[in-house]
Structures are given as structure tokens and as C-alpha cells.
């Protein structure tokens, strides 16, 4: 049986370093390979931190969108024990 | 009669109880107000010393005192754990069946470092977050350690005292150098953050030091599990690190009573206004210190400073000041770098930490604080903290700043 892929939305708006990356870990812990994590953040450092995280852990940043007053980062989980 | 109930007799709860007793002295004596403090036991531990016990061989007994001796005699102390907190009914129930009604509640139940939250961690690691006597097991191990891989790993965020994994790495380096066996030991720090310390300005200070000392820092590490037999730590993304000695910062969660009473989020952190410290949706219940979901360091300094703001808000209600006081988010965490030098990670909600030079004076300040801690809990040294850390509470209605009564 395969699990349906899920989309996990993480709202980190209003929290600053290390807030967004901390929230991302919690979502990653819950996620399975194939899932998509959507991280909403106001911390400008989230962009580069999440990209570096994805490079290091072998996951993929699908898109980074500058929304009105916040950033939306969409991540595909490719690697998870 | 107004009843103030405080749950948790650690740093924040003890400061708050003593400050309130001092401020409301006459009212308590006239029977108009009561201050009741509920604690798990009559022991009070000075937790920052766990590092000294683990990595400098200090005796753990030195840092444990009787809570009842640290309290203002006007505080009623019940050393019996709270079983349930009912915010709707304004009542706290203790393990012995006592039921305490309140007009104002202050929750200061701290955080629990819980190795059982990560598979294999309890059997596979030692730590300095679950009390001074567990920290002493690290020193015992270190004394007999003649070489190999030492890994300091953060198993979950948030955790108490953000600088503590860095401090451990630096103090391990110092320990092995002093014994002349540093070249036989490999030291690694596994951190979930993008750099050696979450705040960039602090990382800039310590990263060159790590390089110079030959300590490897692995970033973006998220712990999955530990195999205690094979002595391997695994990350969620499939990395493996072998160790001979694993010092872990266990995952943390809120206290059992918070989880049981459904007062917190799924990890047991209490949703709290980061400025006023009122628990979300309540105007008669506040939370301070490690127990809250406020995204700043879980540290004694924060618990202490927040206790001052919470006390002002409780006083404002009792005395009718018509003000709500706001905490400015001041943190001031020392980070020891080994060889008698330290820095302070200092910031507020509006001002991130700034880079600074490591110095001996800062290390002396840290150790001085551990000596005055017991005296400071009485609330008699507030003026010293104000001098160093500035005013951390401000009234919202533009009214006058209320200064707490001087020591008597
Ligand atoms: C290794 C280490 C190093 C540290 N170094 C520093 C440092 O250098 N500087 C710094 O500022 N901070 C430091 N800290 C952090 C600091 O010790 C804590 O952040 C601080 O104690 C938090 O205060 P608190 O009142 O919120 O919680 P605590 O002091 O932990 O108190 C919580 C209390 O609530 C009680 N409680 C829990 N459940 C119940 C219940 N059901 N009923 C009644 N009581 C209950 C507990 O028994 C405990 O007494 C360090 C911590 C560690 C572990």
C-alpha cells in the first residue's frame, strides 16, 4: 500500500531566525518521501537558509515566491529515512 | 481576599513568588492577598552549573538547595506536584488532592528534556540537560576517556540554553588539551541550524574558533535515531555519524501537567503573548520562562526578566494601576569558549545580537552570577540586573513606569 502524497503547510510568518528553519524540521519529521512542504515566512534569511538546507539534505526547493508581505517556499521531500 | 497561585518553583516561579511577597507584604499581612506556590518537590537546582559538573568535574550536590529556604516567609509553599490546571474554572489541583482556587495564575513549569523522544537516545547517550547527577556521569566517562570520537549532538529544537552545545564542544576541547590527549580525540558538533549558532553575528565570532581548534561543525543536522549497540547517530536525511562518546541535547517538551491539562500546543508549550505574558484568551492567567511558546531562548535570564513583567501585571490587577506591562524580549545568555573566555548573546525582540570580542571579564561575569544566584532569587538584587540589562518592562497606556519596591 502506498501512502497518498500530502501537502504540509507551515506558517512561520512573524518568527525570525531560527524560527522558520525550526518549523521546517518539525514538518520534515512528519513528512514522507514525495510530500510537499509549503513554508510561509517573513524572515528574509529563510530563503537562503532553506536553499542551503535542501542542498545539504538532498531535498528539492520547487519554488520561492515573493507574496504580499511574505515569502512562500515550496519544498519537495526527496530524501527521508 | 485575592489568591495568586504560581505553579512551578524553578527560576521563574521562585523569583515571581518572592517579588510578589515583597510588593504585597502589607496586604498579605492584613489577609487581603495570598501568594501560593506549587512545586514538584522541595529541591531547587541551579541548572547552568550542569555544564561545570559535566565538563569541569564540579560536585553536583553544590547546586541543589531546599526551595523552602529560598522563599520569602510570606509565600505559602506546597511541595506537591500540580496534577491539573483548569483555566476555565480558575483552579489548580495537586497530587495530594488539594484544590487551589485563584484570581491570578502564573504558570512557570519549565521544559522537560526527554531523551525517550528519540529512538535509542536514552541508552546511547549522556547529557547535561536532565539534572546535575546525570551530568556527573559525563565527567566520570571523560576521566577514563583516552581517545576516540566525541560527538555533541542536538536532538531537537527548541532546547534550554541555546549556547550549551557550543559551550560543551569548547570545554571538551579544553579538557582534552589540558590532559595532553587532544590529538587522539575527534570532536564533532551536530547542529540543526544553518551555522554554528543560529544568530549570524555570534556564528561569525565562534566559527573561526572552531576551525582553529579543529572541531568539526555539521550544520542542518536533524536527528532521527541512535543505534546504541553500533554507536551510530542517524539523521532524517540518512547521514550517519559514528561515535565513542555521545553527548546529546535531548528533545524538549512542556511539563506533563501542561500536556495533561491541555493548556499547551502539541508539544506542551503554552501559547503566550510575547509582550504581556498573558496566556492566549485569558486575562487572569500568565505564563513565563521555558514553559511558553515564545520564540526566544529558553534561559534563566528570560524566566527571571519575564517574572518581573508578570509580577507587574498581577500587581496592576490587584492594585488597580490600569496598566498592562510589556516585556521587551531581552535575552542575555553567556557562552563559554574555554580557557576562561566567554561572550554574551544579548538581544531584544527588536535588536538582534551583535558581534563581540570574547573576553575574560565576560567569563568572570558568568561565574559571578552562579555565585549570586541563590541570593538573587530573593528579589533583593533586582537593582543590579536593572543596571546591567536596563528596563525590560514598559506600560502600554503611556502611564508611569512602576518601580518595584526596594529591598527591605
Ligand atoms: C546545561 C544548562 C545550562 C544552562 N545555562 C544557562 C545560562 O548560562 N544562563 C541562563 O540564563 N540559563 C541557563 N540555563 C537555562 C535555565 O536553567 C532555564 O531556562 C531556567 O531554569 C528556566 O526557568 P523556569 O522557571 O522557566 O523553569 P525551571 O527553572 O526549569 O523550573 C520549572 C519548575 O517547574 C516545576 N514543575 C514542573 N511540573 C510541575 C508540576 N506539575 N507541579 C509543580 N511544579 C512543576 C519543576 O519541578 C521545576 O522546578 C541552562 C540550562 C541547562 C540545562
From TrEMBL, chain A:
List, in alphabetical order, the Gene Ontology terms for molecular function in this entry: transferase activity
Which of UniProt's keywords are assigned here? Transferase
Is the keyword Transferase in the record? yes
Instruction: Name the Pfam families on file.
Output: TusA (PF01206)
Concerning InterPro entries, the annotation shows: TusA-like, TusA-like_sf
Domain UPF0033, by residue range, is 9-76
- Keyword Zinc found: no
- What family does this belong to? Belongs to the sulfur carrier protein TusA family.
Question: Could you identify this protein by its name?
Answer: Sulfurtransferase TusA family protein
